[in-house]
Amino acid sequence: MKTLSNFWRRSALTPVLTPLLAALLLAGCATATVPVAQELPATPAAFKSGDGRWTAAAPAEAQARGQWWLAFADPVLNALELQATANNASIQVAAARLAQANALVRSADADRSVQLGISGGATRGVEPGVTPNATTRITAGARLSYELDLFGKLKQTTDAAALDAQSREALLRNTQLLVQAEVAQTYLALRALDAERALVRDTVAAYRDTLQLTERRFKAGDVAELDVMRVRTEAAATESEAFALDRQRAALQNALAVLVGEVASNFELGLDGWNAALPQIPAGLPSTMLARRPDVSAAQRAMLAAQARVGVAKAAWFPSLALTANGGGVSPELGDLFKLSARAWGVGALLSLPILDGGRREAQVQNAGAELDMALVNYRQQVLVAFKDVEDQLAALQLLARQSELQTSAVDSASRATKLSDSRYRNGLVSQLELLDAQRSELRNRRQALQVRSAQYQATVGLVRAIGGSWGA
User: Fold this and answer.
1) Helix axis angle, 75-87 relative to 89-110, nearest 10°?
2) Signal sequence span per UniProt (predicted)?
């Protein structure tokens, strides 16, 4: 250090380089920008659609999410979920990306280790001024090098890669959760459609009975042909709706086949009925449920990785120091290559610091800063979306529960009205129009009740997805 300081005092370049060194120290000592609280969304005390006990917390992606679909108590759904987890293409792609990220971590960490290599070669030629004759030169040796991480550049690079890998792992968890939720929603929608198809076909059968009765009465001269045409129209229109539901079911079944990784042509889901239970998610779940959302964790890790890369870019202003050592042998004959007289070795240290780079390092710092700004905005957006998703599903479940109660009452009333109208029509007390109106009203209300029930299942799965998985842990 004394020799180095004497050199700077004696050097004529001291007045020129001193400001540059000061700038390097200031730039290198600066750390990555730390996001301030004002840049993140304000945490509400509670969700407005909850019971006041919902709060927020930092991401906790390490918590178990569990096999939440078991709460629906449907063996077919359980088997589909396990099959999708093992075979879904999106999950496999996310797993491959995680493996790639882990490999990049090992690659980045390798730069912090000792590097050892061996080399060998042979040349033949004339060396001017040494000998006019061609000579042979055979070499073999090993080279050892190690870069001292004086200013943490290599460590920050490894840290950034590790954070990227953590973000990829969270994205894998998120993909698994999304696929599992989509499998559940598609399956439950298909079962709801099966129930609606059965209802419509029962209604078609009822219309056919009414048509037969009306035709007999027409032949007996009790009703006009117009009454027969009306019933025939209702029966045909309702049967047409049944075929439309069949088409929707085929599309859902094919979509489910893709989710579980099967060829649609070979996938068939039987008509086992809509037997899944509707789990009740308690309103007072702890805040850690929302904290486990893997997309929020992925965005947070990506932001921290971007922050580490700002530090890497700023560390480029510092000099780098590498220690090297090499040894081997040089000989004109292969047999003499490993003799003591042919040995050669050397040790050294290389200190490097670019002085003029056309603004490359400054541009890299600005680029890293811009990446950090984008990552911060993305993280903030993911937090906002997380709150929105929970609010949406909580509000939906509350409103659907009330709607279900009212719709059940409407179905009971419509069913009673149909029975009364059918009895009165068979006794000739009312016209056929009144009976058709009652039947239409009952069908409409029963289908509406099924759709409300289906929406409750969809919202329940949506809430599971919004809070990041199982609520029982």
Assistant:
1) 40
2) 1-32
Distance (Å, whole) CA 303 – CA 167: 9
Residue 270: pLDDT over 90? no
At 427 the three-state DSSP class reads: coil
Amino acid type, 349: A
Cβ atoms within 10 Å of 56's Cβ, excluding its own: 19
Residue 386 has pLDDT above 90, yes or no: no
Return left, alpha or beta for 273; rule: phi > 0 is left, psi -120 to 50 is alpha, else beta: left
Q: pLDDT band at residue 453, thresholds of 50, 70 and 90?
A: very high
Question: Which residues on neighbouring strands pair with residue 115, listed in sequence order?
Answer: 145
CB-facing half-sphere around the CA of 433: CA atoms within 13 A: 2
Triad 91, 93, 98: Cα angle to 5°: 95
Amino acid identity of residue 325, one-letter, is A
Question: In this structure, what token pair is assigned to residue 292?
Answer: 């486990």
Report how far apart, in Å, the C-alpha atoms of 398 and of each of 145, 431, 458, 463 are: 66, 41, 13, 12
How far apart are alpha carbons 215 and 46 in whole angstroms? 63
Distance of alpha carbon 437 from alpha carbon 434, whole angstroms: 5
Per-residue tokens: 92: 């496999």
Q: Which amino acid is at 457?
A: Y
Q: How far apart are CA 151 and CA 305, in angstroms?
A: 18
Domains and CATH numbers, the chain: 33-112+150-318+360-467 (1.20.1600.10), 118-148+319-352 (2.20.200.10)
